[in-house]
Amino acid sequence: MSFIRLVLFGFLALSVIYVSLSVYFRSVRRENLEEDWAENHPDGGDPSERSDYIERGMGEYAGSIRKRLVLLVYIVPIAAIAVIQYLTN
User: 3-class secondary structure for 49-87?
Assistant: First the structure.
């Protein structure tokens, strides 16, 4: 029973960490895109072009490797627990 509780609470904790990191990385990427636009268009540019530029950048980010690396939030701890369990038994 305690193992099931460990798995359940561990999964919930890792999910909270995953969502938090995903939101943080997306906000950092959006901020970088907004700064790039501001550097390239000192006068502000067309607002609709700006939003299209940012949305295209966020679309490219959705398939990037950085977002996939967040999945390591799940893989590394589970692998570490499995190795520790194997070595102690």
Answer: HHHHHHHHHHHHHHCCHHHHHCCHHHHHHHHHHHHHHHH
